[in-house]
Amino acid sequence: xxxxxxxxxxxxxxxxxxxxxxxxxxxxxxxxxxxxxxxxxxxxxxxxxxxxxxxxxxxxxxxxxxxxxxxxxxxxxxxxxxxxxxxxxxxxxxxxxxxxxxxxxxxxxxxxxxxxxxxxxxxxxxxxxxxxxxxxxxxxxxxxxxxxxxxxxxxxxxxxxxxxxxxxxxxxxxxxxxxxxxxxxxxxxxxxxxxxxxxxxxxxxxxxxxxxxxxxxxxxxxxxxxxxxxxxxxxxxxxxxxxxxxxxxxxxxxxxxxxxxxxxxxxxxxxxxxxxxxxxxxxxxxxxxxxxxxxxxxxxxxxxxxxxxxxxxxxxxxxxxxxxxxxxxxxxxxxxxxxxxxxxxxxxxxxxxxxxxxxxxxxxxxxxxxxxxxxxxxxxxxxxxxxxxxxxxxxxxxxxxxxxxxxxxxxxxxxxxxxxxxxxxxxxxxxxxxxxxxxxxxxxxxxxxxxxxxxxx
Length: 457
Description:
By secondary structure, this protein is of the alpha/beta class. The protein has 3 domains: 3-129, Rossmann fold, CATH 3.40.50.2300; 153-315, Rossmann fold; 319-448, Helicase, Ruva Protein, domain 3, CATH 1.10.8. 46% of the residues lie in helices and 13% in strands. The chain has 21 helices and 16 strands. Strands 2-1-3-6-7 form a 5-stranded parallel β-sheet, sandwiched between helices. Strands 9-10-13-8-14 form a 5-stranded parallel β-sheet. It has a two-stranded antiparallel sheet with strand order 4-5. The longest helix is centred in the C-terminal third of the chain and has 19 residues, at 405-423. The protein starts with a helix and ends in a 9-residue tail after the last helix.
């Protein structure tokens, strides 16, 4: 191979910039990166790092938090502002929660604590160079465009935030009302990021019996308890390399919160019945329709776990906060339900949909359309088919009838479950698939809502 071809091949490889004022650390990082077959440049100060950044293009920057002439966060912010394609990981000997949160909020891709574990370093490098490229062409609003339907300022801001979060390993907490699309957002963060080829494991924390939580999360060894007939991986091991989505995380009991905090801090888990801890590499995304801060204030949720999970918050807007998206959402849902011969909404029906307040949010809109299309005649959905009249105060802005939001949400959830069970001949497995939830979650909801008696058990 000619020298010219060798040079070009070398230039095509992902290049890494290492910034640290400790010579032995620089040499260790440089040697490890070179053994991965990647070219690397080193700097011992902010000033030298800036010179390298002006000279070369990098697929990853590793910077110490404290440098002789400034802070590593200065490098993080500079790269975010001027070299947006380059992920930055912060290396620190001071791995406090505050430092970690500061690094992520400044735009860091990830962080490593000193002394650096080489296996963690290699994993981080592979994740960084595997990030999809950002499409910065005019008119592009991000890779997630089109998967969260709408053009309202609120949903555009959500899509832009998802694109930023996808280029990070920061723990994310997604807040928002039930049915507002929290799991959709979590899946998009995963699908647009470096872990997209690995598993996305959603867990409904409120649907797991407390006595089974530890074995469900961390797995168990054969013979650990009665019925443990073989080794089994838990959610952490199943999600290794990918993303673990903890939905309704506020429902975790306090003893489990302690164990979850330790697993996140140590990046290791121990199966029930095992004496050995196993390393796990996962990204945590959590969500709840409740206020985690309020749960902390009342003592129902640990403050230290709150700070670990809520490093960056993504708020999903309620559907009533983006009414201009309702026509687009309705048409998209009908197209998905009926790829051929799609029913048509009358002008009166569309106006009613746009004026309704949706306590169940996007999920309720979909349920309304499913019911309406089942009732309509001549493939034409009219106002009467929507059956919104039973709650006129919500849509008209009048005084509420006294029904609480929880009552209304439970009513919507009960109706959705009963309709799914009816459609599937009361086959719970098929009904769970139709509703997009796990069988265990459906069983829990049926018990919580008292549907057992209505369906004959």
